[in-house]
């Protein structure tokens, strides 16, 4: 593409310069200047490149959001105590601490404690996962509840998050089949167009009307410029860059440009991950009781207890309770990995998973 544009505008510019410098060589009717044509054509091409650069810039913001998922510091645990250190200073094998609300700085393995981690940015699973000794944690995930010690295993460009970012960048720079086909065609297309331009120029020079040199230049330049596949050369990379970047903003990772192109032909999609098709916001759909317990009363007690919990399901129960008047809770306790307990309106209330009631 650039070869054809350079040849066309270059010939027009050189001709105009020749007319300015040596006007005596040209008859009066052949003294035409084409500076504005060369400038306009190059300007339009640069406009296309500017639009492509803007698309790249918008896409890079999606990657910046992924990079922002890692904190700038980590809490290092040593024999002398705990201290915050820059993320760049963290090395594999270091012992780090995580508490509620922390974002995991590097990949590692838990050595002590239990916590609930929000891994939606990696797995798409909206419900935080319980992690304990021996379980892996990944950079960018968030501790919803709990406190753990973990040993760093992968840092910097070796973390799972970094690999995701690298994959998105590779996808943005890759070419789909249509782009690869265009490259193959251009290897033959450009020489053929140059030959056609020369033949056209020769025909107009020997058989065209006077002044022949003017018509020869205009025809040769026109063939070179018109044959330039600017739309294909700009539209293909822009669509890939914009599509991959936009998908990354919504948590969809595209492995390569060819996969993105093939996605347009899909007629069936099979999902094998719980929560993939949800909004990631759990809701209470029904309240069932036994032993003649009033459903509204059970919901009130459960919501009152969940006011002190940071578990994501607590928000769903509170939303279900709505504007109910909730009683005061005494003796609230968090039972790690099980649930919560407390006293309300003279009742001892337990709220948790099946393991709590075994």
From TrEMBL:
Q: Where is the P-type ATPase A domain?
A: 69-168
Gene Ontology BP annotations: copper ion export; copper ion homeostasis
- Give the membrane topology, semicolon-separated if more than one: Multi-pass membrane protein
Principal location: membrane
Where on the tree of life does the source sit, at the highest rank? Answer: Bacteria
Q: State the EC number(s).
A: 7.2.2.8
Q: Name one GO molecular function term.
A: P-type divalent copper transporter activity
What are the UniProt keywords, alphabetically? ATP-binding, Cell membrane, Copper, Copper transport, Hydrolase, Ion transport, Membrane, Metal-binding, Nucleotide-binding, Phosphoprotein, Translocase, Transmembrane, Transmembrane helix, Transport
Q: Which InterPro entries match?
A: ATPase_P-typ_cyto_dom_N, ATPase_P-typ_P_site, ATPase_P-typ_TM_dom_sf, ATPase_P-typ_transduc_dom_A_sf, ATPase_P-type_domA, HAD_sf, P-typ_ATPase_IB, P_typ_ATPase
The membrane-spanning stretches of this chain are 185-207, 213-236
Statement: the UniProt record of this protein carries the keyword DNA repair: no
Give the similarity note: Belongs to the cation transport ATPase (P-type) (TC 3.A.3) family. Type IB subfamily.
Q: What is this protein called?
A: Copper-exporting P-type ATPase
The protein's organism comes out as Escherichia coli
Gene from which this protein is expressed: copA_2
